[in-house]
UniProtKB/TrEMBL annotation:
The keyword Transmembrane applies. The chain crosses the membrane at residues 39-61, 73-92, 98-119, 131-154, 160-178, 199-223, 235-253, 265-282, 288-311, 332-351, 357-375. GO terms for molecular function: transmembrane transporter activity. It comes from the Bacteria. InterPro entries: MFS (IPR011701), MFS_trans_sf (IPR036259), MFS_YcaD-like (IPR047200). Pfam families: MFS_1 (PF07690). Keywords: Membrane, Transmembrane, Transmembrane helix. This is MFS transporter. GO terms for cellular component: plasma membrane.
Length: 462
C-alpha cells in the first residue's frame, strides 16, 4: 500500500490540491452570491449550471484529453480553473457567474477524468484496492479541509478568492514535474438508462436521489447555515463536519449490505437520513445549540453519502458482466440529472419557506427513495449473486473509471452470508415482467457460458 502511494505521490498531491481548491471555491461562491444580494433561486441556478457543466464534461472532455494528452489537458483545465475565481471577484454579475460555473464544471470533470484514468493505469490487481482507498481518503480529507480555508478571510474580500486561485495553480506543479508516463486515453461509452432501468431500477433511482440530495447540500448548505445566523467560523466547521462524516459508515454499511439485501440497507440508510433531515428542520425552529447542529449534520452526512455507493453495488449485483459499462453509464445519467435539478428545486423551496426548505427538499427525496427501495425489495426478487461492496467517494461527480476497474475485480460474496434473504414471493412475468425477463436472460447467459466452457475443456478419453 505504501509503495503504491509513494509511486503516485505527485498525482495524489495534484488531486488533493485540486479538490481542496474546488471545495473552498464552491462554498465561497454560494456565500459571496448571498452577500451580493443574489436571490436564492439565482444561487440555485448558478450551482445547477456547475453540475450541468460537470455532466457535460464527463461526456465530452475526453475528446480534449485524447487530442492534447493527459498532461497538457490537465494544464489547460487547471489554468482556466485558476482564472475563474479571479474573474468572479472582478466581474460580479449573476449571468457571468452562471456561465463561469458551467465552464468550471466542465473543466473539473476533465481534471477528475485525467486523475482517475491515471490512477487506474498505474494500478494492478494487487494495488488497486489500496489506491482506491487512498483516493477516497484524499478526496474526503481535501474536501473537508477546504472548508477551513474560509477562516483566513471573509467571503466579501478579494483575498479568499486569490487563495482559491493559488490552490488551483499549485495543483499543476506536482503533475508537471512527475516522470510518470501518461496513460492512453480510453474511449467513452454511450450514455443510456434503458439497460439500467430494465435490470436494476432501484440502482438508477438511487443514483438520482444521491445526486439530488448531495448537490443540494453542497450548493445550498452554506446559504442554510448563513440563514441560521452562524458566524463564518461556524459555517466552515458545519460544512467540514458534514463532508468528513461521509467516510465513516461506507465500509460498515457496505459490509452489512453484503449480508442483507442491498435494497433493504438502502431503504434503511434513507430512513436514517430522513430522521436527521427532520431534526435539522426542527433545529431551525427551536434554535438548539451549535453542537447539536454539528452532531445532526455529521449523522446526516454519514448516511447520505452512502446512498450512491449502495446504488452502484446493487447495479453491479444485477448487471451482466458484458453490460456493466452500459448500466454504469446509466448511473452517471441518473446522478447527473439529480445533481442538476437538486440545487434548482431546493433553492425554490428555500425561497418559499426559508432556510429549512433545503432539508425539507432532502427529506422528501429520501422518503420517496426509501419507499421505492422497500417496494422493489418486496416485488423484484433477489439477484443471481452478490458481488463484494466497493466503497467510493461521493463528494464529487462520480466519473468512475477507477471504480469500474475495482468492480471488475470484485469477488462474489459467500452465499452463506446472505442465504437468509429469501424473496417474499416468486418472481413471475405477471407482477414484475421486466424483472422476470431480465432474470431469464441472465439464466440463459450463464447457461451459454457454462456450455462454452465445457466445449473448450480438453477431452481425456482412452
Amino acid at each position: 500500500m505504501f509503495f503504491a502511494a509513494r509511486s503516485l505521490l505527485a498525482l495524489y498531491s495534484s488531486y488533493g490540491l485540486l479538490v481542496l481548491a474546488n471545495a473552498l471555491f464552491t462554498t465561497l461562491t454560494s456565500l459571496r452570491a448571498d452577500l451580493e444580494g443574489f436571490s436564492v433561486q439565482t444561487v440555485g441556478l448558478m450551482m445547477a449550471s456547475y453540475f450541468l457543466g460537470m455532466f457535460l464534461g464527463a461526456r465530452y472532455s475526453a475528446r480534449v484529453i485524447a487530442r492534447a494528452g493527459h498532461i497538457r489537458a490537465f494544464a489547460a483545465f487547471a489554468s482556466f480553473m485558476s482564472l475563474s475565481p479571479l474573474i468572479h471577484v472582478l466581474w460580479i454579475d449573476p449571468w457571468v457567474w452562471g456561465g463561469l460555473r458551467l465552464m468550471d464544471g466542465f473543466g473539473l470533470a476533465g481534471l477528475f477524468i485525467i486523475t482517475e484514468s491515471w490512477l487506474n493505469a498505474r494500478s494492478n490487481n494487487q494495488t488497486r484496492g489500496s489506491i482506491l482507498a487512498l483516493y477516497m481518503v484524499v478526496n474526503y480529507l481535501a474536501s473537508g479541509l477546504g472548508q477551513l480555508l474560509l477562516l483566513f478571510s471573509a467571503p466579501s474580500e478579494f483575498e479568499i478568492f486569490a487563495i482559491a486561485s493559488v490552490c488551483f495553480s499549485l495543483s499543476l506543479l506536482p503533475l508537471m514535474l512527475t516522470r510518470t508516463e501518461a496513460p492512453i486515453p480510453n474511449p467513452m461509452t454511450q450514455f443510456s438508462i434503458r439497460p439500467l432501468l430494465q435490470v436494476a431500477p432501484a440502482g438508477f433511482w438511487g443514483a438520482v436521489c444521491a445526486g439530488s440530495v448531495n448537490a443540494a447540500f453542497f450548493a445550498m448548505a452554506p446559504i442554510f447555515a448563513q440563514g441560521q445566523g452562524l458566524a463564518l467560523e461556524q459555517i466552515s466547521f458545519f460544512m467540514m463536519v458534514g463532508i468528513f462524516s461521509g467516510l465513516v459508515l461506507q465500509i460498515p454499511l457496505g459490509r452489512l449490505s453484503d449480508r442483507i439485501e442491498r435494497r433493504k440497507v438502502l431503504a434503511g440508510v434513507c430512513a436514517g437520513g430522513l430522521i436527521f433531515s427532520l431534526l435539522l428542520i426542527v433545529q431551525t425552529e427551536l434554535a438548539w445549540p451549535f453542537s447539536s447542529l454539528l452532531l445532526n449534520v455529521f449523522a446526516y452526512g454519514a448516511l447520505a453519502f452512502v446512498i450512491y455507493p449502495l446504488a452502484a453495488a446493487h447495479v453491479n449485483d444485477w448487471s451482466d458482466p458484458e453490460q456493466l459499462m452500459q448500466t454504469s453509464s446509466g448511473l452517471l445519467v441518473g446522478y447527473g440529472s439529480g445533481a442538476v435539478f437538486g440545487p434548482l428545486l431546493s433553492s425554490s423551496l428555500m425561497a418559499k419557506i426559508g432556510p429549512s426548505g433545503l432539508f425539507v427538499y432532502i427529506a422528501l427525496n429520501l422518503l420517496a427513495m426509501m419507499l421505492y427501495a422497500l417496494y422493489q425489495s418486496r416485488v423484484a426478487g433477489l439477484q443471481r449473486e452478490k458481488m463484494e461492496f466497493v466503497p467510493q467517494p461521493a463528494v464529487q461527480f462520480p466519473l468512475e473509471e477507477l471504480y469500474h476497474a475495482a468492480q471488475d475485480e470484485a469477488t462474489p460474496v459467500d452465499e452463506s452470508l446472505y442465504a437468509h434473504d429469501k424473496p417474499h414471493r416468486k418472481v413471475s412475468k405477471h407482477h414484475c415482467p421486466r424483472r422476470f425477463y431480465a432474470q431469464r436472460a441472465l439464466r440463459q447467459y450463464r447457461l451459454k457460458q457454462l456450455y462454452q466452457q465445457r466445449q473448450r475443456r480438453p477431452w481425456h478419453g482412452g
